[in-house]
Amino acid sequence: MKSWLLERVFPFVLNCTYYLMPSSWLTKWRNYTSGSGKNTSSSVEPEVLDPVIDALKCEQHSRLLESPPDLMNKRGMLIQKSSSTDALTIITENDWISFCEEWGGNKEKGIMAIIESSDVAESNLGGCEEDMPRCKDHPSSQDEASNDPEIRQPVIRTTPEICEDCIGERKSHELAKKLNYFNEDISVSLVRGKEAPRSILEASSATSETDRRASKRSRKTSYGTSVNLKVSGSTSLYRLKMMIWELLGVVKENQILHKGSMIIDQESATLADLSIFPGDKLWVQDSEIHEHRDIADEIADQKANAQDPEKGFRGTLLTTTTKSPAV
């Protein structure tokens, strides 16, 4: 297992059996094992392995609650794609056995993983644990992964299988939590011309970091003017368009608002309904179809409608003076 102290990345071989471990547990183990002197006493000892592995499986279906990490081909080597957000890390079968012996794990309860090419994975959808070939030794060569020109997107097949239902439900809760925000920053850029530059399309398609302070003041860019706005998940698209009108001078009816390449419409919808997150970068075009008018006229109309809500129903039964019974 010394390879895990010295090498955080090692090449994989297709059709070999590996195991998945919680990345957080491995980090804790690495810090504890590599500590020396005073650092050893201050390092937190990793938990017993058996309940840690059990926690990776859902109680309802006994399936895997986390998706396996992504793989990448780097200079002919098939390796795990480095990401700080990966919940799981791939280890060799020998390392898994050693972990079980030293940290109270059950060898038979491990999360097995086999790396296959996409076409092989499709033909093995009905396979079972016994079908999975095993490599007893740490692979010293990656010829299988690099010599086949057809291998572009290898697939990790796990036993137990991934629980799509539970993962989907958890992601739905996480998404709802992210969209329940208040007084956060987004930016809107006014783009002149028929097409947005590639740089702003890419920025608009990705969610930006939200931990930086942003000024509401507009600023000039190479493609137009950009402003930062304070919004909430409950902010309506109508309200956002009014803010854009006020700061960028584009009449509400002329605004063609985009997130990436997608046009955002439906003025009654909220930003949460439209999956607009804190830090998002939107861009707007001016269709110039409608004549420019003062935003004060729109605000005055709003106030008039708010003061006389029955104005549009005069002459109909909806204006009856009959009192409704108390509820």
TrEMBL record:
Residues 126-149, 199-225, 304-327 are annotated as: Disordered. Residues 317-327 have a biased composition (Polar residues). GO terms for molecular function: cysteine-type deubiquitinase activity; cysteine-type endopeptidase activity. SUPFAM superfamilies: Ubiquitin-like. It comes from the Eukaryota. Residues 131-141 have a biased composition (Basic and acidic residues). Residues 1-115 form the DUSP domain. Gene3D superfamilies: DUSP-like. GO terms for biological process: protein deubiquitination. Belongs to the peptidase C19 family. This is DUSP domain-containing protein. It comes from Salix viminalis.
